[in-house]
Amino acid sequence: MDPALCEVHTRQRGSTLERELTELALCGPSDTLKVLIVDSETLHQYVCALVHSIEDAVSVAGHDAAMSRLAQDPFDVVLIDTGESVLNVMVTAAEMRALERRQLPLRHAAIIACTSTPRDHADCAYAGSGLSDALNVPWTLETVHACLDRWRDGKYLRELALVQDTGMSSAAPPPIPPLQQA
């Protein structure tokens, strides 16, 4: 069902705010891109500039926090900084896929490894890695936008030109609150 029709229907019934929120949640998937960022404040800042609101970009530190958030909320894209271990990112991706298979309704997020070397990028871009894609440095507003655009599946993502018109440079991400520790 169309979310706009659900909203109109809910308002017409004169229900409480809580009932409205519950009914809207049951109306179907949101058209807002939801992104989980693991272990990168820089990527979090870029994503916050590109999505509908900063609430649509959740940043966590560590594997356990990422698994916990993914179990709680559906995300369209997961960006994981490989840090020093590509293998750990592949294990995390495998565990995320296992978690997705256990949840109903079935969800499938694009899991993107964000790498810092060409070798790590090649390992993560390999079809057998369990990852959807890999994003290599330099991480800029343009490269992050291109990655999210490739995996957004029709969901809302700000136009790059509009973000750049606000004066945001790709060299320096905008100021955003620090990582949320789970």
Radius of gyration, in Å, reads 17 Å
| Quaternary organisation | single chain
Distance between the termini: 34 Å
Order of helices and strands: HHEHEHEHEHEHH
Shape: globular
- Total beta strand runs: 5
Arithmetic mean pLDDT = 79
Main sheet: strands, sense, barrel: 5 strands, parallel
Strand order of the largest sheet: 2-1-3-4-5
Share in helix: 40-55%
Question: What proportion of the residues form beta strands (DSSP E)?
Answer: 5-15%
User: How many H/I helical runs?
Assistant: 8
- Uncertain segments are 1-17, 19-29, 174-179
Structural class: alpha/beta
Write up this protein.
Helices cover 45% and strands 13% of the residues. By secondary structure, the protein is an alpha/beta fold. A five-stranded parallel sheet has the order 2-1-3-4-5, sandwiched between helices. The longest helix has 17 residues, at 86-102. The chain starts with a helix and ends in a 17-residue tail after the last helix. Mean pLDDT is 79; it is low at 1-17, 19-29 and 174-179.
